[in-house]
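User: If only I could read backbone structure tokens as easily as an amino acid sequence. Those tokens are not coordinates but codes from a learned vocabulary of shapes. Could you go through the record with me and say what the backbone is doing? Here is the record:
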Amino acid sequence: MGNLFKRYKWMQLFLGILLIVAGIVTIVISFINMGILSTTLSIIIAVVLFAFGGLILLSTFLEDKGNNYSTAIIYASLLIALGVILCIRNTLIQEVILYLVAVFCIAFGASQIIRGIIAIKYHAKPIVIILCFLLGAIGITLGIVSLCCQGTMMQIIYILVGALFIISGLVETIYGIKEVRK
């Protein structure tokens, strides 16, 4: 995501902080009450969707003066609409939470592997390359395992997913700070 948000440095910082908060909330809620975890994740996801939809609209109107930005408006509107749906019908997330967690983990893992490949191409430090591939493998493994396991194993998976949120947030925040300093 570092290259994706190069133009929107502050969005990357926001994403990093939001992921860290989501990870902490996920871990805390999974220890307290697994029953409200899906409702809590529904609210977190809705807030993320509202925030990104609003930020995309705002950045489109402020930065793309005179350009054709209809795609960004459609994208932002879809994000906001999904946020509204999750707020109104948070049972929807309860029905698909397991699949959403799996998809997030696999997508995060794949993006980290792609980031690792790009790091190799640009001759990044070996620790960056190793970290990208390691996070990618962990993410994909968690996604596959979360589809296979249910019941009491789910608490462990949600704790690991919360940790993955936090690590992802830290990585995004570090990249965002580096981009702001340029």
The radius of gyration is 17 Å.
